[in-house]
Amino acid sequence: MFPVSDSDLGEGMRVVEKTNGNQVSLMFSGGVDSTTAALRLAEKYDRVHLLTFRNGYGHYRLNRTRKRVKELKRHAGDRFVHHMESVQPLFEMMLADALEDYRRAGSGFVWCLGCKMAMHTQSVLYNLRHGIREMTDGSSQSTGEMVEQMLLAVYMVREFYEHYGIEYRTPVYTIPREEEIENLRKRRFRMGWRIGDRFLGIQPKCRPGELYYLPFLVLNQPPTHDEEKVSRFLREKRELAHAYIEKRCLDEGIAPGIAQDTGATPGTMEQ
After folding, report:
1. Which of 73, 174, 222, 259 has its CA 20 to 30 A from that of 108?
2. Average pLDDT in the chain
3. Which residue has the higher pLDDT, 204 or 135?
4. What is the pTM assigned to this prediction?
């Protein structure tokens, strides 16, 4: 078991000081947390690559993310590059034996965590291709009921990126939710419809994920996630991810342990 704590996590997630040519990637949905992260990163980095993925299964309303990117560009201009693509093949690989995964975990978290691991796998490849050595997302302790934002999961994902010489950070993890909301409102970002501390209408939707977290959203009953089972699931999926990345790197001539500066100009892609 990992010796993790909120204070330990916060200490490890500070954004480094800006340097010339500094670039960072951010897994981006357009929700409160990832939008706040994007704004903070734009203050420290010359280029912020916003990575948006769809899994091909009940994942829709991605146009909301595009609208959020336009809002961000009004605040920080050319600092943002938006890249969107499908991770459906990766997601299918992660959950090729979904029924067995569910039986062993005894929980539907395998869908959400399998999806997130597919996204992290594709993020590693994006960073390796474009010479980006820092990866971030909008994980927050305020939404710690989500399995992928458990401290254990965050630390295991950090290890996953470290394998490729990429530093993984969660720049808004310890920021209070209300502080994020107030800041976005002051900047006149669209906030949608509020239910509790959630906002509808500002980011993509996932039907299976909504069903899994429905008891929490409606009855305020958060799901419980057994750390041993989460850890086992992530270890197994990381091995699949490593094999996938190794093959893609071999096919593309990329050194898998070093982020490559290819000189490519990434942008929004629809695949």
Report:
1. 174
2. 83
3. 135
4. 0.85
